[in-house]
Amino acid sequence: MTDIASLAMRVAALEEQLRLMREPLFKRVARMAEAWKLTKREAEVLELIVQAYTNKDIANRFKLAIGTVEIHVSRVIHKSKCASRAEVIVAAYTGVIP
């Protein structure tokens, strides 16, 4: 591959990433929830995770036990194939879905 072709591919990839980053966060989160096949509750938890809610905050919001929220959060992380809650947040803000 020529240097020009390689550079063109890199520019196209960066343009796509910028396009994804301009997409409103709530749309990215909805797209992620669909791609990861999250349940309705897991999708709701995902929305709050990316807004930096703690497990306690999420539990209070939905009137759930913290243990129940921890299960939902771990399922979101598992289904997303992310290594951590932080990676889930980064995926949401960058638009890059693992």
Description:
The protein is mainly alpha-helical and 98 residues long. 76% of the residues lie in helices and 0% in strands. It contains six helices and no strands. α2 (25-35) packs across α3, α3 crosses α5 (66-80) and α4 (55-62) crosses α5 (66-80). It starts with a helix and ends with a helix. The mean pLDDT is 89.
As a percent range, the share of helical residues equals over 70%
Number of strands: 0
Low-confidence stretches: none
What portion of the residues fall into strands of 2 or more residues? under 5%
What is the end-to-end distance?
27 Å
Global Rg = 16 Å
Task: Label the overall shape.
Answer: elongated
How many helical stretches? 6
Largest sheet: none
Q: Structural class, from helix and strand content?
A: mainly alpha
Assembly of the depicted chains: single chain
Short description:
The protein has 98 residues and is mainly α. It has 6 helices and no strands. The two termini are 27 Å apart.
Provide the fold topology.
Elements: H1 3-22, H2 25-35, H3 40-49, H4 55-62, H5 66-80, H6 85-94
Helix pairs in contact: 2-3, 3-5, 4-5
List keywords for this structure.
single chain, 98 residues, mainly alpha, 6 helices, 76% helix, elongated
